[in-house]
Each structure stands twice: as C-alpha cells, then as structure tokens.
Queue: 3 jobs
Job 1
Amino acid sequence: MSFPVALQLFTVRNECKENFYGTLKKVKEMGYDGVEFAGLHNHKVEELKEMLADIGLVAVSAHVPYKDMEENPAIFADYAKLGCKYIVVPYLTEEYRPGAPRFDEMVANLSTFGKAANENGMTLLYHNHDFEYATINGKYALDVIYDTVPAELLQTEIDTCWANVGGVVPAEYVRKYTGRAPVVHLKDFWGEKSENMYELIGIETKPVRPEGFEFRPVGSGKQDFPAILAAAKDAGASWVVVEQDQPSMGLTPLESAKKSIDYVKTINK
C-alpha cells in the first residue's frame, strides 16, 4: 500500500500569497495528491474549493492557530465547507506550553475544539514541535495531552522532524499511536538542536540565526523515511504530509517541494 501524499502549504506560503491558484496547480503537477492549508490568504472558502476541484487536489487538513479556534468557533464550519477531513492545532505560544501557566487550560480546550470538529464532520489533530517532549512527572507532555484528551476528540499528527529533535525515534513514536495517527508529517533536517531554532519557522524572530541546523527536502537530511513510512503503515495512517519550513541547499520553496515528492515516490510503495 502506498500513501497519498499532501504538501503543507506553509512550505510555499509566499507563493500562495502571490498566486494561490498557480501555486496549487504547480503542486499538483509535481505529483502531490492533496494539500494541508496554512491560512487562506484572503480567499473565500468557496473560491478555494473551486480551485481544488478544478486542479484535482484534495483538501486533507488545515493548520489553524489555537487562538483562532478559541476566539472564532465558526472557523470549524469554514474548513469543513472547504472539504477538510482534519483540522489541526499547529503550534503553541509560550504561555500554553508544558510547564507554563496556561498549559492545563490549553489541554482542556482541546476537548472543546475536538467536539466542535466532530460536530462539523472533522477530526482534531495536534501537530507537535520539540517542546512537547519536556516531561511532566516523568511522562512526555505530548503523551500527557493524548492521555488526557480522549481519542475520539483528538488524534495525532506526529511531526517526525520535531520528534527527532525532541529526543525520540520518529518511527517508534508514530507506531506508539497506532490507531490514532491518521496523518504523519514527513520533514527532514540536518544538524543538531540549537538556540533560537524557532526563528527558522518565522515565529520567534531573534537577532542571531541558529547555526548548524536547517530544514531540508525529504530524503536530503538525517531522517530514516523508509522506517517512518513503515511505521505509518503499521499505525494505520491515511495520509503523509511533506513540510519544509524554510528552503535550503540553494533551492526555492517550490524546488524543495519537488525534490521532496520525487524522493517520496521512490520509497512510497
């Protein structure tokens, strides 16, 4: 069994801002089957749904900021209309992270979000970084989240790059959530964990860029993707999603996405 492969559109976010239709068309031509949204870039849901239908791409899922889910409950219906099967909490600002004052509040809200997703025919996923691998009473905070919120309200979207950076073996961690891992993020990197890493994803801008770490096209870095795909199959995943937060190796974002899908095709069998 081979997986359908989607592209997380954060990879080509600037291209989407400039020409959403043209970028989606290029993504399809590269060989991707679907996309995971990271913002609508001032387009109406109806417009994007028509674009996807015309081009032949599946709206697999959408990364939607935590605060947007909290402050705008109607957002769940919007992404359901777009055709997304999954809606994803993509990132936590510092006050909601493990050990921070509002972590418990965030975990409780995930149940609320999960119910809203279910009511709109979707499933809520949580997309990790490395900070969720901090421990709480000897247990990874990410496991605390999944142990606290029931599976019918929250499923996993394991980001395999950040899992590795967080100190676990990505394939083993995907397999740990067998039956609860419908979407797996394929992300490659080179180098070691360093200070100011989140400057690389454009969220926490610091004056000094981290040295010795970069995101790379899938198959061009340190990750064991044959093992990850095998684990995703064992875990019952339905989709794999390519993401590269920043381009590297002298490639543009679109060239990076093409290099990734070309590699994935060689092992996705």
Job 2
Amino acid sequence: MRVREADLSAFVERSLTHVGIDEQQAKTVADILVAADRRGIESHGVARLRWFYVDRIRNGRIKAQPRYEIVRESATALLIDADNGLGHPAAHLAMTRAIDKARASGIAFSAVRNSNHYGIAGYYAMMALEYDMIGICSTDSIHLAVPTFGSTKMQGTNPFAFAVPAGEEPPFVLDFSTTTVTYGKLEVYERKALALKPGWAVDEHGNPTTDPAARHWGSLLPLGGFGTEGGGHKGYGLGALAEILTGVLAAGWFGAALTLTEGPDAPSGITSHFFGAISIEALRDVREFKLEMDRELRTFKASTPAPGESRVYVAGEIEHENEIAFRRDGIPLIGPVIDDLDALAADLGIDPITRISP
C-alpha cells in the first residue's frame, strides 16, 4: 500500500495529539518518523508509532507534557534533561541549539538525558546540512547485543550518524548501527516472515540463528559479527564509545542499568543522546569544500563495480534516491503495518490513513 507523505504525517500528528502531545511536538515526531519511511528505513518509521510511542504515552511510561531542564550550558555546549518525554522533540531541540552555537563559535556539542527513542540518527545529523555544517549524532539504547566473546547482552544498537554537505552531489550521510543490523531490522523480518541473514543474531545460548523470532529471546551481534576475525571487536568498541558519549557523558543511564526487557512496558526515560555541529566555514572556504566533496564522492562512484554489481554507491545515496521516488509515487507500507495503523485509528477514534487510489 502506498500513501502520500503529507497524509502519513497528518495521521501521526492526529494519533499523538489525541493522546496528549502538543501540536508542535507531534509535528516534529511526524516529520522524523515519516522521514525514515521516505528514506526507505522502514524499521524506524511509522511501524513503531503504536507500541514505541502511543502505547507508552497512554500507559504513563512516557510523559506527554515533559518540562525540559537546561542542566549545563556554555557558548559551545549544552546538556538537556528531557524529563522522560518523547525523544524526537528533545533531540531536535538539542541539535538546533548545537547548530545555533556552532554558527557563532564554529563548533558545538550538545547532549540529552532522561529521554526515549528518537527515530533515525541521520535525521538530526542532516539538520546541519542547510547551514553548511557537518552534523554528528549518536544515541544509546537498552542492551540488545552481546560484546565480543560475550554471551550476555551488554550494549545497544548504539548508532552513529554523520552528514556532510556536497555541491552538485547528494550529501554524504553515514547512518549506521554499531551492531550488524538494528533491532528494528529483526522486527521487519519477523513481520515479513523472512529468515535472518547469517551473522545477524545468536540464540539464548550464544549460537548463530536465522530465526527472526530471535529478537524475543536471542541477541544481536556487534558490527563485524562474532569474535574478531570479521572485525566484531571494532563494532563492540564503537558501541561502547556511543554509550560513553551519551549515557556516561550526559550523566544518564549506562552499563548494567540498560540491560532491560524490550517491549511496550519497558522502562522509559533511560535513553541519552549526543549531537555535534561543525561549521565548514570555520576551517575553510565553503564553496571550495563542496567542489572537492563532489570530486571525492564521484571518485568512489566512478570506480569499477564488483562482478555482478551495476554500480558503486556512497553513503546516503540509496536513501536519497528513495526519497525522490517515494515523494513522487507515495511511501510504501507493508500490509501488517497498515493493519496495525488502522487498528490504532479505530482504537483512538480518529480518521485512518488516506491511501493512494490504485
């Protein structure tokens, strides 16, 4: 089923305002969730609306009307306590403030604690692009993955995102989890009844598994997979770094405190985020930088593809092309997601999503 971007955003806003979220915050959340689906990152889009957000607001685990606190602030840094509100508005505010400070000082960082899941990390990094800045973002999460040579869940998917402007080329947007795949990827595969790819997960005993239901009783693996031969220790290190820059630096939750059960009743307010903005102009001429970024990206794309492959991509290019196509043709949503959103509409007593006529 395909839906127009505006119709999907309007549905998310209706759902959230109905459960007490103010209009501006609901719009921010809608922008971020729909951006994920528009870029083809369906694991972090509207499929999570009900059980990640609406259900937790309705049962009181996420505050509908949080009161943010500025804990620390300087000319180049900011720490916000999100008061257990939705992660998206708090993260949007923190990145906005980092950009504002970088416009004055050349570089700035911000962090958020006592927050919740905030969607795709790349959205916040990309906020810096229109100001000719490099955007940086990371977040921690409840523990879903085993460390290298470990059998107990000790780190989250803990993504990093970097967005770098270019000239005629699309921006370079590197948005990646520090696990082989995100937890949301397992959700998608379970919804579609597809077997997992080897190396994505292990069962409750630490043995490799391809069962998509492993998300309920197994664990993810660090980026690079099991052990050190494929570089799993590097993914483990990156995941630990993300938790240090977020939970530890922001004086939020970290370590064993994040080893919690996933699901709509999981504890909230445990997530911390980290943001950065670097003004290109502070280091060199912006126009020259963009020209050379185009040269850099085109060098990769002009290289010889591997046998059986048609082209070489750079980070963010596939998602950029998805955005063009989905804005033109509508955003695709699979049947189980449409069914869940229809059920949510009926439950809340609001209008369902408007579909594109076949």
Job 3
Amino acid sequence: MRVTTSNSYDAAVANLQKRQQNLQESQMQLTSLKRVTKASDDPTAAARAERALAVEARTSASQRAVDASRSSMELSESVLGSAGELLQQAREALVSAGNASYTDAERRGLAQTLRQLRTELLSLANSPDGAGSFLFAGQGASSPPFIDAVGGVQFQGVSGSAEAGSSEPLPLTFDGQATWLQARTGNGVFETQATTQNGSAWIDGGRVSDPSAVTGDPYSISFSVSGGTTTYTVLRNGNPTALTNVAYQAGQAIEIDGQSVTISGTPANADRFDLVPSSASLSVFDALDRTAAALETPGRNSGQVAQSVAFGLRDVDQSMTRLQAQRSLAGETLNRIDRAGDRLSAQKLSAQTERSAAEDLDMVEAISKFQEQQTGYDAALKSYSSVQRLSLFQYLSV
C-alpha cells in the first residue's frame, strides 16, 4: 500500500486544522466561562441546564408574585393600623360625650368630629394598591369599592380576595365587605336594643355569664310602672318566662339564660329593651353615622344620651376588634409570604447550582487543557514545517 506525499501533507494539514479548532473552542469557553455553549457540546449537560433554567424562570415569576403580595399586605396592614387609630379617637370623643355636664351644642361638636373621622375611614377603605386596583376591593376593581350612598356606605366590589399567580396562593387584596361592613353586632354573642325608651333608663351592652346556657333566642324586657312600683317581665320568643313581674332595681344585673345585662336609670311605663342574637352585619360607617345622629338630636334626657354613648362605644369597640383581627391576618400573611419567599429563594439557588454544574467551566481544568492544546498545536505546527522542507528539490538546493 502506497501513501503518497500529497496524502501525508493533507493528513497533517487536517490534523493542524483540528487542533486549531479545538484551541479556538477552548478559547471561547475561557472567554464565556461556559463549558457548554451549544447543545452539541454536551447534549446531556445541555438538557440538564435547560431544565434548570426553566425551573429558575418559574421561580423568578413566583418571586415577583410574592413581592407583589408582600407590598399589598404591608400597605393593608398600615391602612388598618391607621383605621384603628381613627376609631380610638372616635372612642375618646364618645367618652367625652357621656359627660353629663355637656350641652347639646357641645355634643353636636363631638358629632361633627365623628363625621370627620368617618370620612377619613372611608378614604382609607378606598386606598389604592399602587397597581391600578384597591387594597379592599375583594376580587379586584378598577373603581373605588366603597361608595357613600343615601342609605349609607355600600360595597361595590366582589367579596373575596384576589390572589397572586404563584406556586402558593397569596392574597393581593382584602375582602372589603368583611373588613369594614361585617363586624359582629352587640357583644359578639347577643345585641341589646332600646326598643321603647320614654324614661331615663338605659341598658348596657351585656355580657355572657354562662356560655352553655345561651339559647340564641330573642328576649324582651318590658317595664310596668304602677303605684310607684316598677317591675319588669322577660319574654322569650314572645312567651313568658320565670322572670315575670320582678321588682326592678337600678344598676342590678338581670340574668337571662346565661346572658347578663344591666339596666340603669328610671324606666317609664311600657319601656322595653330587647336582646337579639348577634350577627356579622355591623358597618363601622353606619355605627358612626347612628352615633353622630343621636348626639346631634337636641332635648334628650340623660338616659337617652347615656344609651347613645353606650351603644356607640359598644359598636366602635366591635369595629376595632374586627379591624384588629384583619390586621392580625395581614401580619400572619406577611409571615407566610416570608416563608414562601425563603422557599423560592432556596429553590432558585438549587436550580442555579444545577445549571452551573451542568454548563459552567472548571477554570483550573480549562486553563490546563488550553495550555496542553496550545503546546500540542505548536509542536504539530513545527513538526509539519520541518517535514514540509524535506523535499528533493529543497535538498538539492542546499
């Protein structure tokens, strides 16, 4: 078998070209710091890197959703805190209104204070989230969710809450109706009402003395004044109870099936107070409206004024309790967001590590390999140059 000189030269040139190509690829890897720059470099590693890149992209999207939820919850928590401060101011104004020495004019001034605080609360309830929606819009709205209508403040949004599109359900908004319009009435178990109040008697908010005895039925306490003697009768669902024609003593607690109420002052004949089950229907705006309207009414006796103040304080306290519960929920959500953020950060780091392991360059190994290839290329080039000069004509010309 004969190997021609031309064939030897071609093989040598191909070898040089191959070595030069490998050297260029190593230079490119050193420049990009990537061992795999295209799928053909290492198909298996390229597939691993692609999967890791997809996980990293999904994690980044989830992190953006988590950040949006965190921003919204922080704003909501701040707004609810401000609302609590306004209600505390309303409570202080109501305590002042209970001063027996105050005149009708002074109580009207306090009523104006309550109306101003109510206006500020409505503004807080319509707080924007900075992203085109509103913090308390429920499932989202492009216009303020609360409107001040003739019958009181109404919620125009959709109950519920919007959630961020992430791997974990995280809220972007609060349910405005549940936050501002659905506090528990009364003391949370039952509500006292002054149905007929001609005398100077008034009833407190009541309390539960024995939870196991509470029936959930409505009760009425009716007064009878005859011959200078005042008695009361308690009806349950309109039916007589054992408390019939009981002598009335002002300020003495009346126990009714695990419920305790105190009536003070002097009731008139046919005065009536009711106890009805509590419901989640107390609007903070309606509560302030009712109290302000009562304080603005002139010519009322001390019992009627005391009743308005007592009911106002009760409703403000229940509204504050509801807002504080929602604020606590915002705090719990922020803690959950932090935990979700930590998990996503760990997941992203894992994906980045996997991607790096698949495609990143080992600099020590790469430099060593490059130097080895460079040395081999230089040696091959010198060898080829030496062999190329070994022709008969070059030999004769020496």
